[in-house]
Write a structure and sequence with these properties.
The chain is α/β, with parallel strands linked by helices. The protein is about 40% helix and about 15% strand. Helix 2 packs across helix 3.
Amino acid sequence: MPADRAHRDVKVQGVRLRVAEAGEGPVVVLLHGLFMDHRTWDAVAGDLSREFRVVAPDLPGFGTSEKPPANRFRYDVDSFAEVIADLYAGLELGRAAVVGHALGGAVAIALAARHPELVSRLVLVDSMCFEAPLDLRRRIALLPVVGGFVLKQLWSRGTFRGLFKDAVLSGTGATFLEKVDRYYDAFNGPASRGSALATLRATHDTRAVVAQTARVTAPTLVVWGRNDRNFPPRLGRRLAHEIHGAGFELMDAGHSPHEECPEQFAAILLRFLRDERASGAWPLAAAKSLGTKRG
């Protein structure tokens, strides 16, 4: 986020959310993925905030938002979506563009399907939607009893770095490690680990998300990393076909193109949000290249 960003706590549905804000103008809501928080958008929020009011919450259980126990918050996609819908009211946002990455993409789909009056435009970045193969670490975490023990007690800093290196971010240098370590520090506490486990288990079955794609009416752009080892690009193409009129952009990146290629990503996002194409949405077959490669 820009240096002049502001943070505030907002209570929605009995849960305290930490929200980062910057800029003025039409509202853009940014929703982060699993094991991340609002800082995942730092590299692109500056460009956005020159023209838009950027609102980036930490979802319940993540970052510095409250981490309620699973018996008080369900940690499924629809529950996250309803929290964001209430956040609109708490911040008096009106209609807003919504950008969601991974888990945040699934939440954005549910929000757009359940509350179309709130979403003016939708951008889905390597979004959770269709069932995808899990790496060994997450497969173990889903096991009854032993999985909870492993994630809560045995996931070390090295394990976390390995997860990001293998499935989330591209890179091995000091900047990469510093970024991943910030996420680990937010994850490394009993309540945070419990929330992450509850989310992983509550969102594993994605059929409810798939069912809601047909109800999305907002102009939509799907952005995907060509080298995503978590959600393969074929899932992005499928998602763009499932949502009527959606466009598709394939970037030379992994699972988090907004962190790996922020300048290219910001250019794609700004062009879509500015509505430079008179038709609104970007049809998959007719969209023009923005300097990224198409698959």
